Q: What sequence folds into this?
């Protein structure tokens, strides 16, 4: 390989190496990707140790859906419990890049006549400004199968 080509390759590598930390920081902030993943460049820049908790609810068709019937994890089959635990770990690592569609489809039999399955994700994190643990809640409503298929909608 000629010297000029080697210099171009080295310049491209150094450029990517210089840009990647800022890009990784933005990914960790916006998509909630685990800051230690993807080469870990954002591990010191993002104070967000991730713990994702999951609550499941059967809801009626009211607007907004009234969710008064919790689904206990002990009511799920062992394979569903394992998939739910794996989903929680993957969601903590990959943030919003880990979709909920497959877990919602897996839990659809638990709806038992309800029109909506609500999945509530509780994301605990360390708030760097107050040095306290904070929690954000996200509700996702899964409407059961019909002619057009299943839908997952963020509330």
A:
């Amino acid at each position: 390989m000629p010297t000029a080509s080697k210099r171009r390759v080295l310049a491209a590598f150094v450029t990517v190496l210089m840009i990647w930390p800022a890009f990784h920081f933005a990914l960790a902030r916006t998509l909630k990707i685990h800051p230690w993943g993807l080469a870990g460049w954002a591990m010191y820049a993002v104070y967000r140790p991730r713990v994702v908790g999951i609550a499941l609810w059967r809801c009626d068709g009211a607007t907004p859906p009234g969710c008064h019937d919790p689904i206990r994890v002990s009511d799920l089959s062992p394979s569903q419990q394992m998939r739910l635990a794996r989903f929680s770990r993957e969601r903590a690592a990959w943030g919003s890049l880990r979709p909920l569609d497959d877990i919602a489809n897996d839990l659809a039999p638990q709806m038992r006549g309800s029109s909506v399955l609500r999945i509530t994700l509780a994301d605990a994190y360390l708030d760097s400004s107050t040095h306290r643990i904070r929690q954000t809640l996200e509700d996702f409503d899964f409407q059961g199968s019909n002619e057009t298929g299943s839908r997952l909608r963020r509330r």
